[in-house]
Amino acid sequence: MALTATAIALAAGPLTLGAPGTAGAAGDHPIVFARYTTAAPTEDLYTINPGGGATVKLTHSSTVSDVMPSWSPDGKRVAFVRYGSGGAIDGIWTMTSTGGGLKAVPGTKGASDPAWSPDGKRIAYAKPVGTQRELFVADIDGTPSTRLTHTAADEFHPTWSPDGKYLAFSRADAAGNSRVMRIQLSTLAQTPVTAPGSHDWTPDWSHSNHIVFSRVDSTGFAHLYVVRPDGTALHGITSAAANDKYPSWSPDGRRLVFTRGGTDDTDPEHLYLVRADGKELTQLTKTGSHDLEADWRP
User: Fold this and answer.
1) What is the rounded CA–CA span in Å between residue 70 and residue 208?
2) Domain limits at 87?
3) CA Rg value for the chain
């Protein structure tokens, strides 16, 4: 579980979110996520309907962990990270939406945080270069691989803009701060989205062109915030005395799925749904498990 834990080491004016017609209804679009328990510490991938009900297990391995799932834009395949015992990361794989057709993505050994491009042809990910993690993008078959960042910081958790021209991502510095950045793929020009000295993690870019992320704010808890890609109209979504992390937009941009809980391995982490305005909070999973890194099918 070390890999997923480190990923979250974790007022301005109102937003108009989820314009009608942006991506269709979300009710029949399943959510994929990683799950582990204290009794079974290797993670597997599951899906659940946003309306609730039984989970469906997609991967079944007691010797490797499968984490960080990302739907293809057509919903037919899932990219994810598979890693073995001792925390050694084996790289990015893809599979069908029912768990079959496993394929390794060449050249991704040590990679994490896969993100499928809106056109379905490319995948962005983070990968170690020396002591830092840098961002790369490659065709879905792994070639050619292009390095996007060259910094002394750690870059991870890329997420695509709806038009496929930009990535937003987290940049963590040596002081333990992390901010959301934006990079233009054609020029590699980088622009800050959130302020320096923040603790901002795991952004997700919606079809309605807003970025949600998890911020450890002045309360000491991780809460969900949303911001426009240019950094304006920062707005808090959750504010409970709980840790909220790994947010993912519904395809219509009206709701979010996220993980709440997890102060330690004895504290279960459940998936919750919430409207983008912070209303209608609903607990989706309720077992004594750790449910992480959800991705809502486009």
Assistant:
1) 19
2) 2-296
3) 17
- Distance in angstroms between the alpha carbons of the first and the last residue of the chain: 27
Query: Can you give the CATH number for the domain in which 196 is found?
Result: 2.120.10.30
> Residue 38 has what pLDDT?
85
- The conformation of residue 47, written as its DSSP 8-state character, comes to E
* Separation CA 188–CA 87 (nearest Å): 31
User: Per-residue pLDDT tens for 64-95?
Assistant: 999 999 999 999 999 999 998 776 678 999 99
Is residue 297 a contact partner of residue 29, using CB atoms and an 8 Å limit?
yes
Q: What is the distance between the alpha carbons of residues 140 and 142, in angstroms, rounded to a whole number?
A: 5
| pTM of the predicted structure, to 2 decimals | 0.90
What is the amino acid identity at position 273? L
Q: What pLDDT, in 10s, does the model give residues 258-287?
A: 999 966 667 899 999 999 999 999 999 999
Give the integer Cα–Cα distance in Å for 169 and 164: 14
Omega before residue 298 within 30° of 0, cis: no
| Position 236, amino acid | G
Q: Structurally, how many domains does the chain consist of?
A: 1
